[in-house]
Design a protein that fits this description.
Rossmann fold; globular; binds NADPH dihydro-nicotinamide-adenine-dinucleotide phosphate
């Protein structure tokens, strides 16, 4: 299908789903050379089938807050593609959640999961529920009521969710408990569980660590390393925290982290102790970076209205780890001026369309999230294997496997990109590499 026809179809069938359109068009751009070599994939309409979810579930979640008032939210699960395995992808709780965002995330997940080499299909879900400012009891009640409906559609051979924005170990624990109670089954239907009840060691760390392992490989390909490199990380949540931890361990300097209150700036890089305290503020006290810097005077705080200033800093590496479309073209132009060497995405689709075009035409080494943040789903796959065999591996063993998977994804992206005429373009390599795997499985499974 040519681009004009695809845009027409997207407008017609999925009108208003702008984030979904953005993700679909980005992949489509790299498929012409694939169709030249495999015309049967065009005849089998693989791409058109990939952009239509196998199933989209939306449901009401009602719950009672601490004041005794009834609250109503909307929950979703998008079961995008099961050619390679059970649907797999996280749950996001945020007031910004809507079908367009979940469909873009589920679509990206197809390629990401295929790249890991683990037999995983693709899905994504969540609710337009805002966990901010909620008591622990309210979070538990919401998670339980959300699971009351979700449990009908998921299961360890069907659909295995995990965490994402607003869903961490605490929320996963409550959902696991609810599912167990309703189904009377202790199964690994969700990953990211606490390690006391079937969670894998290194799952919490996996996306952030995997991102840094991927960046290390990118730099190695240019005979460089992370040592002493000045880095900006956006976000201060799960992915950002563990990316920071690994970077500090590898002697890089994390000079900026951010959250929805603003940015912190550490001229000589955050120390291990400062990061530990930051994690305590975010994870245990559930406070903002603005609160954290009141307690940590050696750091400078820039409120959110000055957050764009960080792109002018002279740094080497950028790791966007907050949310989609957080980096615009202007930011990329500033990065070019500042001499940035590498940008690797921890978040899903953090660059706008224009920002992506600008970075791809620059000298900056660039890795898309579907390749560089695949560590989380890879260790989720490892958690599923451990749950099935009932044996658990050491942190060292899981970390070793994670490192190998990230290296494989990196090398695969580069070699596929080269083979299809997009030398050094990780985005093309990830899109084509993921597509080839899923297309082959869909062809073998027939039209059904
Ligand atoms: P968290 O909820 O743990 O953290 C998100 C962080 O980003 C928070 O610090 C949040 O600030 C900040 N943030 C979110 N939206 C905005 C915004 N509009 N402006 C400024 N800051 C913002 O989520 P995760 O770390 O789990 O996920 C981050 C990204 O990584 C997402 O794109 C997710 O899809 C992707 N990802 C996550 C994986 C995982 O394993 N968790 C796996 C693969 C990808 P605040 O604290 O103030 O809310």
């Amino acid at each position: 299908m040519n681009k004009t026809k695809l845009i027409e179809q997207l407008q017609h069938r999925h009108s208003y789903e702008v984030e979904f359109h953005q993700a679909v068009l980005e992949v489509h751009e790299h498929l012409a050379n694939v169709y030249d070599r495999f015309p049967e994939y065009e005849k089998l309409r693989i791409f058109e089938r990939l952009i239509e979810p196998e199933r989209t579930i939306s449901f009401r979640v009602e719950w009672m807050d601490d004041n005794g008032d009834i609250q109503i939210n909307r929950g979703y699960r998008v079961q995008m593609n099961s050619a390679l395995g059970p649907y797999k992808g996280g749950l996001r709780f945020s007031p910004t959640v809507n079908l367009s965002i979940l469909k873009f995330l589920a679509f990206e997940q197809i390629f990401k999961n295929a790249l890991t080499g683990i037999p995983l299909g693709a899905g994504k879900g969540g609710a337009n529920f805002d966990p901010k400012g909620k008591s622990d009891r309210e979070i538990m009640t919401f998670c339980q009521n959300f699971s009351l409906e979700l449990q009908r559609h998921v299961g360890h051979f069907t659909d295995v969710p995990a965490g994402d924005i607003g869903v961490g170990t605490r929320e996963i624990g409550y959902m696991f408990g609810a599912y167990k109670k309703i189904q009377n089954q202790f199964t690994g239907w969700i990953t990211g569980k606490g390690t006391d009840f079937g969670g894998s060691l290194i799952r919490s760390e996996a996306t952030g660590y995997g991102l840094v392992y991927f960046a290390e490989e990118m730099l190695k390909s240019r005979k460089e390393s992370l040592k002493n490199k000045k880095c900006i990380i956006t976000g201060a949540g799960n992915v950002a925290q563990f990316a920071a931890q690994k970077l500090i361990e590898l002697d890089a300097k994390v000079v900026v982290m951010s959250d929805s209150s603003g940015n912190i700036y550490a001229e000589n890089g955050l120390t291990k102790e400062q990061l530990k305290k930051l994690m305590h503020f975010k994870n245990d006290l559930r406070k903002s970076l603005a609160d954290y810097t009141k307690d940590e005077e050696s750091l400078t705080f820039f409120p959110i209205d000055r957050e764009a200033e960080k792109w002018e800093y002279k740094v080497d590496c950028i790791f966007p780890c907050a949310t989609q479309n957080e980096v615009n073209e202007d930011a990329i132009n500033k990065m070019k001026k500042a001499g940035v060497m590498l940008l690797a995405e921890g978040a899903n689709m953090p660059l706008t369309d224009e920002a992506q075009a600008a970075i791809l035409s620059s000298e900056i080494l660039y890795a898309p999230g579907k390749a560089s943040n695949a560590g989380g789903v890879a260790v989720s796959g490892i958690e599923m294997s451990q749950n099935r065999i009932g044996q658990y591996w050491t942190a060292e063993e899981v970390d070793r496997r994670l490192k190998n998977i990230m290296k494989e994804i990196h090398n695969n992206c580069l070699s596929v990109a080269k083979e299809y005429g997009f030398k050094d373009n990780y985005t093309a390599g990830a899109n084509i590499g993921g597509f080839l795997k899923v297309a082959s499985a869909m062809k073998q499974q027939g039209v059904i």
